[in-house]
Structure formats: C-alpha cells, structure tokens
Amino acid sequence: MKKKKKIAAAAVIIAAVMIVAVLVVYAYFSAFEGKDNTLTPADNTIEISEDYVPPAEQGEGSNIYKKQISVVNSSNAKCYIRVYMDFSDSGVRARSYLSNDPDQSAESFYSANRSTEGNTYIANLGTQAPKWEFIPDNDTSSLAGYYYYTEPVLSGESTEPLMTYVKTINADADEIKQYDIVVYSESIQTTGMDGYKYTDYKEAWTATLG
Predict the structure, then answer these.
(1) H-assigned helices in 96-198
(2) Burial of 161 (0-12, 13-18, 19+ CB in 10 A)
(3) C-alpha angle with apex 154: 153 to 156, nearest 5 degrees?
(4) Cα-based torsion angle of the residue sequence 186, 189, 190, 194 in order, rounded to the nearest 10 degrees
(5) pLDDT tens-digit profile of 30-48?
(6) Where are the domains of the chain?
(7) What is the dihedral of CA 161, 66, 183, 61, to 10 degrees?
(8) How many CA atoms lie within 13 A of 163 on its CB side?
(9) Which of 33, 48, 113, 182 suits 71 as a labelling partner, its CA being 20 to 30 A distant?
(10) CA distance readout (Å), 191 to 68, 148, 149, 186
(11) 184: how many CB neighbours lie within 10 A of its CB?
(12) What SS3 class is residue 125?
C-alpha cells in the first residue's frame, strides 16, 4: 500500500509594481501669454491572476494539480510584463513538470528545470505558450532568469497563461515534502520617459534595467 503524506503545495505570490511616472509638462504657447498644461501621470500596476486547485494530499508516484498563472494589466497604460517563477526546493523542481494542455496529456508535460538544454518546458514555450519567452539564468544580459511576455498588454487585459498544470513525481515517501512555487511579476510601460516608443520587449526591458 502506498504511503501518503499531507502537503500544502502553497503558492507564494509577490506582485511587484514598477511605476513609470510622467512628470508635469509645462507648455508655453506664445511670447505674450503662458499657460500650464498638467498631464495626469499614467499609473503602471499589475495583478497576478491564479487559478489554483491544491491537491488534497500528495503521495508516491505522479501527482498533478492545477496552477494557472497569468498577469493582468490593471493600469491605464500599455505595458510589457515579465515573470519570475521557480520552485522553492531544487529537488522538487528536478522531478516536476509543467503543461498548458487542458487535456493534461502525458506528452504535454515538460521538465520544470531552468536549463534550456534537452526536452524542457522552457524549450517548448513556443508551442505551449507562444507569447512567452524565457531568458536563461546563465544569459549575460540583465534580462536573465525571467519569463517575458513578448507582446504589449493593453490596459485591462491579461497575458495568456504561462502554465496551467504542475506534475510532481515522488519515487517514494521520503521525497514527499512541502514546497512553494514562487511567482513574482514586474511591468514597464511601452513608452519611455522621453516619449520614445520601444520597438519590442527586449529593447524596453534593456533600456529600463541597463
């Protein structure tokens, strides 16, 4: 008889807000008369949307539960969004798999490892989550370690899901443990402080992060 152990596969959600302020602009219309035009700063706020159905318990073998992650642009400005997502325990991550397939077919689950080598979920974002792109941890740029939504997200709209299902395989009872999936999101406006409109997400994030 398989041993089972209760587990709280909790999700730690940290939503970060990066505010890009638009300063008050003073416009002078003529040499004879001056007038101040005050522009209301565009806010830049986001919310992580999660459809999480925790498993009642986790046992030996394959354990699948729903954890659909997307990000909502709740500001009044169009923005680019990125997400940091990882397991709190590297051992659990090594035996966990992610999928966006509503049918949860076995072949749709790919390794949650953060390496781009081999048959991993990161390497298969193009087919499962085509609007998301992962910049590897070992990338030398300032963009490393995040999932980037490649298209601008309009005010009030949401990204497509980054992931929908998690599968963790426990070889025996000793591998069953409590863990967190950490989800952290950031956003920046698609237009810079000087009014320049970025051509794509990489240019926008590089200009912001340096």
Answers:
(1) 125-128
(2) buried
(3) 110
(4) -130
(5) 334 444 444 444 567 999 9
(6) 4-209
(7) -130
(8) 27
(9) 113
(10) 29, 17, 16, 16
(11) 16
(12) helix
pLDDT one-digit tens code per residue, 133-156:
999 888 899 999 999 999 999 999
Q: Which residue type does 7 have?
A: I
**Residue 87 has which token pair?**
């397991």
The pLDDT tens digits for 171-192 are 999 999 989 999 999 999 999 8
Residue 63, both tokens = 């354990």
Q: What are phi and psi of 191, to 5 degrees?
A: -120, 130
Task: Kindly list the strands in the beta sheet with 147-149, ordered across the sheet, starting from the edge strand earlier in the chain.
Answer: 10-15, 180-189, 79-87, 147-149, 132-134
What DSSP designation does 169 have?
E
Residue 97: what residue type?
Y
Are 167 and 103 contacting, i.e. CB atoms less than 8 angstroms apart? no
- The pair of three-digit structure tokens given for residue 148, joined into one six-digit string: 């980037």
Strand segments (E) across the chain:
4-5, 10-15, 46-53, 58-59, 61-73, 79-87, 96-99, 110-111, 132-134, 147-149, 163-170, 180-189
